Structures are given as structure tokens and as C-alpha cells.
Amino acid sequence: MDSSRISLRPFKLSDVDDFMEWAGDDQVTRFLRWKTFASRDEASNFIKDVCIPHPWRRSICLDDHSIGFVSIFPASGDDRCRADLGYALAVKCWGQGIATIAVKMALASVFKDLPDVVRLQAKADVDNKASQRVLEKAGFLKEGMLRKYSFHKGQIRDLVLYSFLATDSFPN
Ligand SMILES: CC(C)(COP(=O)(O)OP(=O)(O)OC[C@H]1O[C@@H](n2cnc3c(N)ncnc32)[C@H](O)[C@@H]1OP(=O)(O)O)[C@@H](O)C(=O)NCCC(=O)NCCS
């Protein structure tokens, strides 16, 4: 993949049709807290009410078309030193290194954009090997297993915890 074709930018209402292509796919939402989007109206409201006002959510774009998202959600109050990372990509784009490029792009700007944040963390389902690999390739440290941590789509799941600190070396 030519990384110059990949960009991160805020969502726009006009992304709705591209958004539905991936957010309307059960394979993409399987490990996300999101439900699979069932209609264009639902997607449009979500872009307007959740994606656009979000503190740090970007559309992953291929030639400026939305093919996924990367989000960083900072904690508040005394926990504002940390933020949670999430991402997903259209199935047609899997396996080309795009999520890793997008996470590295997010790392390159997040500590400047959110200056209180010194720790970025991500929790990947124990069965989500592709996501764990993305985090490893992007330079995250595997900290351990959070056993029976979260109820997700009908089951209590084990999650693998990863972190990247503002002082960590940026991956090649
Ligand atoms: C996770 C996801 C974002 C990965 O996107 P991607 O662009 O395909 O990721 P990359 O190509 O950058 O890297 C994927 C890596 O996982 C590896 N991988 C994929 N499936 C795997 C599996 N079942 N077992 C082990 N490794 C696997 C790939 O080989 C690749 O590693 P490599 O470069 O060393 O060969 C994508 O699968 C997705 O959107 N999944 C659904 C949403 C999701 O799970 N989000 C994360 C929630 S924590």
C-alpha cells in the first residue's frame, strides 16, 4: 500500500455512504462496542451526533474516501493522563498494513493534540489477533491479560492490554 493514499481527517456528513459500507458490516463491528449500522439515517445521525463532536475521532481515508476510523478518547479528571484507542477498517482493505499506518499517524499527532495525555492504551479481545498485531507493529507494549474484563455481545471476554507512552520511541 502506498501510504500517501492514506490520510486521517475529521468525519463529514458526506461520508455517510462510504461509512455504511464498513460500519454496516458485522465482520467490522464484531469486536467493537458499536452495533452494526442498519440504515443510512442511523449512520448519518451517528456521524453528526457522535463522530463530529468526538474529542479525537478521525476517518481513515483511502484517496479521501472513508474506509474506517481511529478514535482516541481521553479520560477525565485525575485520569486525564490516559486515553483509549480504538479503530476499525473496511474488510476489503484488511491485510494491507492500512490500520498500522493509521495508528502510527494517530500516534504522530495525539500527544500534541491532547497535551494532558501521556499514556495511550488499547484493549484487544483475546481472539482478535489482527488487532493485537497492529498494536505490536505500531510500537505498543503488551502489559498483560485483563481476565473476564468486559461483557461483549453476549459473553464476558478476556482482553489484552497494550500501552504506548508519550516518551516511548516512535516505531519505524
Ligand atoms: C484489526 C484491523 C483494524 C486490522 O486492520 P489491517 O489493516 O488488516 O491490519 P494490518 O494489515 O495493518 O495488520 C494486520 C496484522 O495482523 C495479522 N493477522 C491478521 N489476521 C490474523 C490472525 N487471525 N492471526 C494472527 N495474525 C493475524 C496480519 O498478518 C498482519 O500482520 P503482519 O503485517 O505481521 O503480517 C481489522 O481487521 C479490523 O477492522 N477488524 C475489525 C475491527 C477491530 O477488530 N478493531 C480493533 C478493536 S480493538
From TrEMBL:
Lineage: superkingdom: Eukaryota
An annotated Gene Ontology molecular function: acyltransferase activity, transferring groups other than amino-acyl groups
One of the Pfam families matching this protein, by short name: Acetyltransf_3
Signal peptide residue numbers: none
Domain N-acetyltransferase: 6-166
Gene3D superfamilies associated with the record: 3.40.630.30
Identification of the protein by name: N-acetyltransferase domain-containing protein
Lineage of origin: Eukaryota, Viridiplantae, Streptophyta, Embryophyta, Tracheophyta
